[in-house]
Design goal:
Blueprint lengths: L1 H6 L4 E16 L6 H10 L7 H23 L3 E4 L6 H11 L5 E20 L4 E20 L3 E8 L6 E6 H12 L3 E4 L2 E5 L2 H9 L6 H12 L15 E15 L2 H5 L2 H11 L2 H7 L12 E7 L4 E7 L2 E8 L3 E7 L7 E8 L2 E8 L7 H18 L9 H5 L20 H10 L11 H8 L10 H17 L3 E3 L6 E3 L1 H15 L2 H5 L1
Parallel strand pairs: 2-3
Antiparallel strand pairs: 1-6, 1-9, 3-4, 4-5, 5-6, 7-8, 9-13, 10-11, 11-12, 12-13, 14-15, 16-17
């Protein structure tokens, strides 16, 4: 990421990274599965034949609570006839007609799909039993103007198991924090086009992860769900909170829309044409081996926010778009965190042990989610740093086309020859961007799979060693300390990408 910022330093005001939209989901774990709900009904001495009346009692209590909250605040309670209707547009209309500076804006109700339970007859056993099913039920939306988070909403399912969602925006939280400490800024929609003190603002945004999320979310849930109150009968346990969707965005702020418009078409073209599936996998920290059998997809489309380039690896994605004309946003969304690992303590065979285990959706792994998302954004911008080079190509290729007179002489490189370009293409593979390339990796990549009589191992290893020594002497790679890995230098990125581009470009385009 630093290379990208340095490359376009004359165009850029600065950058800031943090959560944009966060969607928390709360489930009542004790009744979110068939056996748990069965035990709960038995504890309340409710038979299966009385299931519907038992559930309607919970539903009626939630509706009555929602009506009381709206009536107490003097705000409208509206029914939305279609789940596809834009609720935010309706909320903004209510704000225009009945402005409010803080607190409840309105309460909406809408019938939408949900996961719930029903009672079915088991003909073989001749008894009733609980089964999960997909259905539709009434959902209540509470829209607030919070003093810390700005416009946010809570969505509560009125039918068992009473699933809840809390949606808020990290950029809105940052805006209110900057107001309190006196940092000047310019905000458009949910991004900032200018911030007077970027290091201080970044420190504030980093604090968002450290908030006591469990306490905040439980407090909001208790306000809208009456069955969580201490005196409720029956009283439900607290929600278990997960991050259903977390959009972590890195915003690069340009001086003006023209400064971004001059390079953005080239960024989009490079992202679509040059970022192959292995590179996209490495952006998101995934291994490129035979164990991966998922789908990698890259698309480009025009949205309201701007032209968007999106790369999707199964359920997770990374995308780039020009927001508000002057902000380049790279955003990582982890919908399926179990694809990643976190170092944590687990219990195995009755003993506690530490190791790398699948990342959980729970808020306990929020810091690791931030680390992974920030790393993906940084790798993506690092790969885009080669775009926008204004120097003539000969100034990049000429220095490496001369022999070196060092204590040990090295021949000149032939940057656009078939042999050198094959070597460059191997070193630029996405699988070698994170950790680097070893002698063994290079000789395996240089050996054609269909070769019937491969070279002896020692000869192949010596050949790879000579290549690595030559590239290292020309300053295209460097060796990672205390390892056998080699990584590309900034000069190496420039030389190799330029050489490959020359070799792949149509002669008609060069002669035009």
């Amino acid at each position: 990421m630093e290379r990208f910022l340095k490359r376009h330093a004359s165009r850029i005001l600065g950058s800031i990274s943090g959560f944009d939209r966060i969607l928390f989901r709360g489930v009542l774990r004790s009744i979110s599965y068939v056996q748990g709900l069965d035990y709960f009904m038995g504890n309340q001495r409710v038979g299966f034949k009385d299931f519907r009346g038992f559930v309607e009692k919970f539903s009626a209590g939630i509706k009555a609570r929602a009506e009381w909250i709206a009536r107490k605040s003097g705000r409208p309670f509206l029914y939305v006839s279609s789940g596809a209707a834009s609720k935010e547009a309706l909320v903004r209309k209510v704000l225009e007609e009945k402005p409010v500076k803080e607190g409840l804006i309105c309460v909406l109700s809408c019938v939408e799909p949900c996961q719930t339970f029903t009672v079915r007859r088991d003909r073989e056993r001749r008894q009733l039993r609980l089964v999960p099913r997909e259905a539709k039920c009434l959902h209540i939306y509470f829209y607030f103007l919070d003093q810390d988070f700005g416009l946010m909403h809570i969505r509560l399912q009125t039918w068992l198991p009473l699933t809840i969602q809390v949606c808020l925006n990290g950029r809105e939280w940052l805006a209110r924090q900057m107001q309190r400490v006196g940092i000047e800024y310019e905000q458009k929609d949910n991004c900032f086009t200018h911030i007077a003190d970027l290091p201080r603002a970044q420190a504030l945004l980093d604090r968002l992860v450290e908030l006591p999320w469990a306490q905040l979310l439980n407090r909001w849930a208790q306000e809208v769900n009456p069955w969580l109150a201490p005196g409720a009968r029956p009283r439900l346990r607290s929600y278990y909170w997960t991050v259903r969707q977390g959009e972590y965005a890195s915003d690069v702020m340009f001086h003006n829309p023209q400064a971004l418009a001059e390079i953005y078409p080239g960024l989009c073209r490079h992202a679509i044409e040059q970022f192959s599936s292995p590179q996209v996998l490495r952006f998101l920290g995934r291994r490129t081996n035979t164990l991966f059998n998922g789908e990698v997809c890259s698309t480009q489309q025009r949205r309201v926010e701007g032209v968007c380039v999106k790369h999707r690896v199964e359920e997770n994605s990374i995308k780039m778009y020009d927001k508000q004309g002057s902000v380049l946003r790279v955003e990582t969304t982890l919908n399926h965190p179990q694809r990643f690992r976190v170092y944590r303590c687990v219990r195995r065979k009755g003993r506690k042990t530490k190791g790398w285990y699948p990342l959980r959706k729970g808020i306990v792994d929020l810091r690791r989610r931030v680390q992974l998302s920030r790393g993906a954004n940084a790798r993506y911008l690092e790969a885009l740093a080669v775009v926008g080079e204004t120097r003539p190509a000969h100034r990049i290729l000429d220095p490496v086309s001369q022999p070196l007179k060092t204590p040990r002489p090295h021949r000149a490189l032939r940057p656009i020859s078939p042999q050198e370009c094959l070597l460059f293409a191997i070193l630029l593979r996405g699988e070698f961007h994170l950790q680097g390339v070893r002698n063994r990796d290079l000789r395996e990549a240089l050996t054609p799979p269909a070769q019937t009589e491969p070279a002896p191992p020692r000869r192949a290893a010596a050949r790879a060693t000579r290549y690595l020594g030559l590239l290292r002497a020309h300053g295209l790679i460097y060796r990672v300390g205390r390892t056998y890995y080699y990584r590309l230098t900034q000069k190496g990125q420039q030389v190799m990408n330029t050489a490959l581009k020359f070799r792949q470009t149509d002669v008609a385009l060069l002669a035009a």
